[in-house]
Amino acid sequence: MEYQIRPLRPEEYPLLEEFLYLAIFVPEGEEPPPRSILAAPELQVYSVGFGAEKGDFALAAETGGRVAGIVWARIMDDYGHVDDDTPSLAISLRREYRGAGMGTAMMREMLALLQRAGYRRASLSVQKANRAANLYRRLGFQILSETETEYIMVSSFLERP
Questions:
Q1: Which of 20, 24, 32, 121 is the 20 to 30 A CA-CA neighbour of 95?
Q2: Of the candidates 142, 139, 161, 160, which has an alpha carbon nearest to the alpha carbon of residue 151?
Q3: 157, exposed or middle or buried, with CB in 10 Å at 0-12, 13-18, 19+?
């Protein structure tokens, strides 16, 4: 499948809410939460006012004129928050585009972008049961801390292979 990774355009920022909903991990056999969950303050930090801060970065994967996935970063007090100098990452792909390498390419591009912007590392939170945790390990993320159900992972640009 052919696709291109490009900056998310400001007029596309409303898509962040849709992709945030798609990023919510739903274990096999469980029902997804209602879309109203996006109004929760702990989820609002991912999209409200996006683009207004210097640490806001977003890339889109586009195929056939359609945004298939988005990876975005911002300094925010979210689930993957490490400190006020480390951008937290979120990534989401439409279901039909998962498993084809697009997510890996998007993450690599975002990590390179953050490194060029002068950041020393990036963080994220992932449910232990989420297969994406393996992707993050392959990309050089290391577990910084964990709870019973999730990891907080960090990719240090100074230590990446």
A1: 121
A2: 142
A3: middle
Model confidence over 98-143: pLDDT tens digits?
A: 988 999 999 999 999 999 999 999 999 999 999 999 999 999 999 9
Kindly compute the dihedral angle of the four CA atoms of residues 143, 148, 150, 153, in this order, to the nearest 10 degrees: -10
* Residue whose C-alpha is closest to residue 5's, from 58, 56, 60: 60
pLDDT digits (tens, 9 = 90+) for 57-97: 999 999 999 999 999 999 999 999 999 999 999 999 999 99
| Cα Rg, the chain, nearest whole Å | 15
For residues 30 and 34, give the distance between their C-alpha atoms in angstroms, rounded to a whole number.
12
What distance lies between CA 65 and its chain's CA centroid?
21
Mean pLDDT of the chain: 94
